[in-house]
Amino acid sequence: MSAGLHQQVRALMDAAAAREGEAGPPDLEAERAAYLQTALELGGPVEEVARVEDVVIPDAEGGRMRARAYWPTVPADALGVLVWLHGGGWYVGDVESFDRVTRQLANASGAVCLSVAYRLAPEHPYPAAVRDARAAVVWAAADGAAQLGTDPARVVVGGDSAGGNLAAVAARHERDALRAQLLAYPALDAAMAGDSYREFAEGLMLRAQDMEQCWRTYLGDADRADPDVSPLNAHDLAGVPPAYIAVAGHDVLRDDGLRYADALCAAGVDVTVERYDDMVHSFLRWGGVVERARELIEALGEFARVSFR
User: Fold this and answer.
1) Cα separation values, 194 from 181, 190, 198, 236, 242, Å
2) Fewest 10 Å CB contacts: which of 11, 44, 81, 281?
3) Which tens digits make up the pLDDT trace of 257-291?
4) Which of 144, 131, 175 is nearest to 157 (CA)?
């Protein structure tokens, strides 16, 4: 049985319920704007970093994608890079809506945090985002190191929700380039088979039907069983980088993270699991109103910092 909701989360949910019915019919641009607005309202103050710079990364198809690099105020002795892949169901979210999170991650890890503007569905369905995630890791471990001033042998990949999915896939394919993978409430099973999908089908923040919409928008007619879609179906996990996995107790994706941790352990991979049992999906972005968001930032940063040593 899940723990009760944290009082700060309960207050947010009550406020959201009071506004229910105010919005009009679903609209893609409106959803993207609302996602950014939530980050601005709930993310807290903008944390100072030493430097911020937009960079351009070559993609796997001969094109280019944008990313934003954040240098920490107190860098580690050996400067690494944390490639961060934002959440948002593969169709909302961007560098701007994660600006507060990635600033905090840079300072918490002592590393350059590289926030990647991977291509979004439905304009760019699967596998575009996977290719972009992999390309960002490859760049950080090669040509990008000279531009960023980082050690090419010190690269970590991470992401939340849909970004956690992309981070897990990138970590599998680019394992030799990485020190660790950081997965915050990742979406790892397009079959939606975990018990938490039933337990929280009508849950808070993210319902089962919401995740179905995310998967459908991202995948179209792609094979949902493909391990690059559903990392829980991968059979080549031995040798992937050590993992930190955080799950929220009141989240349809809770069991995705727990099941993946079990699969990694069975493959001989070092795994650290932290359960935020009184949290709901997406709480990482609410640092201005939910204290435990800061706990998760610090845990992610510490795991990365240790991995860089």
Assistant:
1) 22, 10, 8, 21, 23
2) 11
3) 999 999 999 999 999 999 999 999 999 999 999 99
4) 175
Which tokens is 219 given? Answer: 């995948």
230: its two tokens:
């559903």
| Alpha carbons 234 and 257: distance in angstroms, whole number | 14
Sheet containing 64-71, strands listed edge to edge, beginning at the edge strand earlier in sequence: 51-58, 64-71, 112-116, 81-85, 155-160, 180-184, 243-250, 271-280
Segment 6-39, tens digit of pLDDT: 999 999 888 776 665 554 456 999 999 999 999 9
CA angle 231, 236, 233 (to 5 degrees): 30
Please tell me the distance from the alpha carbon of residue 201 to that of residue 193, in angstroms, as a whole number: 12
Statement: the pTM of the whole predicted model exceeds 0.90: yes
Q: Where are the beta strands (DSSP E) in 49-129?
A: 51-58, 64-71, 81-85, 112-116
